[in-house]
Amino acid sequence: MSNAPGYFVSFEGGDGVGKSTHVRLLGQWLGEVTGREVVLTREPGGTPLGAKLRQAVLHGDDMDPRTEALLYAADRAHHVATVVRPALERGAVVVTDRYLDSSVAYQAGGRELSEDEVERLSLWATGHLLPDVTVLLDLDPVVGATRLSGAPDRLERAGEAFHRRTREAFLRRAAADPRRWVVVDASAPREDVQAQLRVDVAARLDLTPVVDEAAGLPEGGR
Ligand code: TYD
Fold first, then answer.
1. Which residue from 5, 140, 141, 197 puts its CA 20 to 30 A from 161's CA?
2. Contact yes or no for 8/132 (Cβ under 8 A)
3. How far apart are the first and last CA of the chain?
């Protein structure tokens, strides 16, 4: 595991796939089975500075692809430096709603930058921090769009072809690195999706939950 002593889990997928619900449920469960502190967070906007960047990138003026990529990378750099790394160093479980793969899928897969340059930008921004496991909640973007509520943000308005390209980019990345990625069909009922991802994440993290009989508390295996 690259991020010892903590565990770093990211969730990825299109808009409307149910990431925030599954982040919360998985985080709660990981806390129970490992007995560790759990930090639930998100990108963009997981920090006070990130909230301002989120506002600019999602609800601000139109911008060129490089500006957009740099704003997401700036949010990520600050998020990793001030929230994610300190938590991993404390031994916490960090579960983030989106990370670097969103940039590759949206800023390269969706727009016209190359995947390689967007990935290198994010790796530079984060000092090469990669998740131990990345969950892809995979869903047809047409179905995802029907699950969204409220006024669409700048990215949600980008159109069906754009969202198809981002889905394909996520699936390609997952297929290229099956040791890091867990792919779950997000069209299944919520309980089934959560049950499957618990099994897959525990296997990837090599969690061997044991029950501490004295305290009656489950402990994780790392
Ligand atoms: P998200 O927070 O998942 O949306 P919401 O809370 O509105 O459901 O993500 C916001 C949008 O930002 C989403 O459309 C994906 C996009 N995004 C990128 O384009 N690049 C990135 O690096 C990240 C993290 C998100």
1. 197
2. yes
3. 10
Domain boundaries, given as residue ranges, for the chain: 7-214
Single pTM value for the model: 0.90
Choose which residue among 10, 102, 122 to substitute to test ligand 1 binding: the one with the highest number of ligand atoms within 8 A of its C-beta.
102
Give the fold, CATH level 3, of 7-214. Answer: Rossmann fold (3.40.50)
Asked whether 158 and 32 are in contact (CB, 8 A), the reply is no
Per residue in 165-185, pLDDT (tens digit) is 999 999 999 999 999 999 999
Tens digits of residue pLDDT in 111-133: 679 999 999 999 999 999 999 99
CA of 93 to the centre of ligand 1 (A): 22
